[in-house]
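Journal club prep — side note

Before the paper discussion, L.F. wants everyone to see what a predicted structure for a comparable chain looks like in token form. Sequence:
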Amino acid sequence: MSQALPFVHVAGLLVAAHPAELAGVARQLAARPDTEVHAADEAAGRLVVTVETDSVDAQEAAFREISALPGVGVVSLVCHRAEPADEATGDLT
């Protein structure tokens, strides 16, 4: 019997924050090991972010944690993708 491959779950998020707090939110997100900030619209108070985890449960936990960060108004899931870890562009270590 073969063992199932682990999956990498990648979520694309739009994170909205008050424009005056956007830089601080971006720093907090960048400090997370599973999170990358790709773009910022300072005038609109929006960040384009990806979160990479090894399970849907971990994704949900990350969304809750990001939503609870000081300065964050709304976190919107834009896309989600799961692929076997050996095919992913990143790793889980």
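L.F.'s comment for the group: The helical segments are 22-30, 56-67. Keep this in mind when we get to the figures.
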